[in-house]
Structures are given as C-alpha cells and as structure tokens.
Amino acid sequence: xxxxxxxxxxxxxxxxxxxxxxxxxxxxxxxxxxxxxxxxxxxxxxxxxxxxxxxxxxxxxxxxxxxxxxxxxxxxxxxxxxxxxxxxxxxxxxxxxxxxxxxxxxxxxxxxxxxxxxxxxxxxxxxxxxxxxxxxxxxxxxxxxxxxxxxxxxxxxxxxxxxxxxxxxxxxxxxxxxxxxxxxxxxxxxxxxxxxxxxxxxxxxxxxxxxxxxxxxxxxxxxxxxxxxxxxxxxxxxxxxxxxxxxxxxxxxxxxxxxxxxxxxxxxxxxxxxxxxxxxxxxxxxxxxxxxxxxxxxxxxxxxxxxxxxxxxxxxxxxxxxxxxxxxxxxxxxxxxxxxxxxxxxxxxxxxxxxxxxxxxxxxxxxxxxxxxxxxxxxxxxxxxxxxxxxxxxxxxxxxxxxxxxxxxxxxxxxxxxxxxxxxxxxxxxxxxxxxxxxxxxxxxxxxxxxxxxxxxxxxxxxxxxxxxxxxxxxxxxxxxxxxxxxxxxxxxxxxxxxxxxxxxxxxxxxxxxxxxxxxxxxxxxxxxxxxxx
Length: 534
Fold this sequence. Notes:
Helix content is 33%, strand content 26%. It has 13 helices and 23 strands.
C-alpha cells in the first residue's frame, strides 16, 4: 500500500523476475534505474499489451506482441537490462528485444548507469510476488577462458559457431579466448551426454554452450515423454559440466521455417514442440544457476518480421526448414553472444571539430587529428557482414530483423563543435550524411557503414576460423570420440591410455596451431574518418 516499492540499493545491469497481477482498468509499471518504465496495464483497455518501454520517444515504446493474461490473473515477467538495452519476456514470450531505454528526466542524456528499481503504485490495486533479482557483474567469459560450442548438425554446419568465434576473437580480443566446436550431425541430448566425458571434459572447458532440441523433438507434435527425455539428458549434461567447474550456457533449440519446413507435423506444431523444449532448457538453467540462451524466440521473430518484407520464400531457418543458412545462423550467434553478457561496446571515437581534437576508447588509438579528419589505429574490430541485402545466403539481409548491431556491435562516433545543421561522414570508400543532433548523440559506425575498412581484415579472420573449425570436426568425430571404442576393446591398460593421451595432445596441439594463425592475423587496422560540414 502507499507509494512505490523501491529497492534500497541502486542497480546497474541485472535480470529481474517478478510475478504481477492487476485489476480491471489498472495502469502501472516498473521503473528501471529510477526511470519510468516497463508498462503494466489491463489488456482489455490496452490491447497492445504490457512490457513496452512506455516513455520512449525515439526508440520503440510498444511491445512486439501482446502476451498478457486477463486482468485479475497472474503474469510472469522477466526484465533484463544490460547497458542501455532492455529485454522483456512476458509469460515466456519475448515482447521487447534489446531496445534502448531513454532517460525520461533528461531527454538529451543516456539512461543513468545505475539507479533504483521501483514497482509503481498508480492508484489502483496491483499485486507483486516471487521477486528475484540477479546482478550482472560482467561477461560470463573471463580473460583466458576456453569456450566449447556443442550441438547437433546445426552446430556442425559451422556457421553460428564460426560467427561466435569471429566475434570472440576479433571484437573482444582483450579477453584472449580460445574456442572449440563440437557439433555432431543428427545428435540429440542423450548422445552428447554419452560422449561428453571423453570428447569434451579432457579439453578442460571454462564455458560451454549447448544447442540441443531440434532432433529431441522427434519431428512430431509434443508429448510429455519427449520433454521428459530431453530434461533428463540436459540436466545430466549441465550437472556433469558444473561438477567439472564449467559454466554452461544452456541454449534452447532454434525454430523451423514457416514456409520451407515440409515435415508432416507442420511448422506451427513443431515450433510449439520446440517452444516446450525451450521452456525446459530455461528451467534447467535457472535451477542450476546457469545462463540461458533463448535461440528459439529470436528466430521466430526474425522470420515473422522478415517474410512480409522479403517474401514468404525468404527462409530464416533454412531451405529444408531447420538447417539455417548464414542469415539464420547470425540470429543464433546473436542469441548465444547475448547470453554471455557481453556489453557490445566495440569502442567509441570522439571528435571536437572546433578544437581539431579527437580521443578514442581502449582498443583504438588516435594517430593524428586535424579539423574534420582523424586517423585511428584499432586493435578491436567491429563485426562485419557480407552478402546480398535480400538473400538468406549472407548475413546482411537479416540485420533489420535482429538487434545484432544495437546489442553487440557498437562502434560509436560522437562529434562536437559542428556549426552546420548536417555533416557528411566519410569512412573508407563510403560516405553518409547525418544531422548535427545525431552526431552529437553518437552514430554507430558498424551499423551505418556495412562496407568499411575492417571488412577485408575481418574476412581473413573468418576464413581462418572456418579452416580451424573444419579441422575440429574430424578431430572429434573421427579420432577422439573413437577412444571410447578402443578402451572397450583393450580394457584397462595403462600403455593404451598413455598412447591415447599422446594422440589427444597431438591433436590439440594441431588445433592450437590454427589458433596461433588466427591470433597472428588479428593485426591493427588503420582507418580515417572525415567529417565534412554540409
């Protein structure tokens, strides 16, 4: 009763879980960092639904879909805030996806870096329960970690895993991570459970991502035994890895395409099955205190938004309906990278035209600055995209339908001292015009200039990663996994174990040569920005 319920401490980045119930014609919300608000209201009065960032003026303020239950019934909400970006799930439905929350009190400033969380009293009956807050204190991956990417044939396609490794090597090189891919065609969770101790644990991983469920659904409508089998094996996988000291990013299955998926069960029924497995994966992650990667919802949303613009034949989940092409794999990589709690800040460059000065954040060094021109050397790359703007065979076509750049790929240019209303920014071979206000607030170079000076160096990194992961598939599938059969044939034999240990070491050393080649290819890039008043 009374005024807003407010946290005693300020909070910066967090996951908030809360159940709420509102009465007829009710109107309320949840303040984040002291600023209003994630909207809550009676869906009968507001059919767009709850969860939107109501006070946004520039960025989206409404939820993508309505997921409310009727007034008088309990709703479950999850709010994730990382930096300026807010994601909201309402009753397990993604309704806000990495949207910038604007500063209500000071419109020209970003949202405050920390502040209280408030459950609003708006003069009508409102109930909250089951309130749980998890602070996000930094990325899941730490400097020097070994990251393993496990999954079925979709992982063995070596696309989302490649994009993940590209990002972890080129975009956050300061973390000095090592990555291995363990995809296996046709595998279900029980298969990975059976080979985990032999294939993965000896590699001593610090972080493991899993992506199972596509085959576990058995390509038919959901039945409880399907979920039970998936739960048993996924829980066993998480517990084994947890006991070994690894953090497990429990990934949901992806989705099937609403047009190209031709199995008898049909895309709607099979996506419902996969959504049930998604919920099981989420429950296991929460129960075991592990991060969860929701791969399913972003793929469903991407195709729902892309097909009206690019045609129903534009597949997000692959020509066969479930093995995505590069566009869908970028969505998958986005889901896993976000689950690693990476802040997405590639860097920032500030230019003062009046003074002829410039500065840059870590990973970027100002070589020279003159009025309207700055030369920079960068050891951190933005993620780069390739392919036709309308083809699923590249990564560019899906960009309008997944917040990859906004959430993970921000290389920001801020310009002060511009007297004209507009200026042309020239970067590499490209040029675009921006308003003074936009330049003062900051533009994302990585999003605005898809063709940029980093494209060719990034392409070289990607080629080496592709070769490295192409080596890792037979290393695991044709060699290391067969150690189990050899042990079965020779029994407990110290000489045989020593031989297997030597072979494993030699294979890992060979994989390490690819990693060294990768690091050697990550060379600083010199590039020049010109700001020309119009």
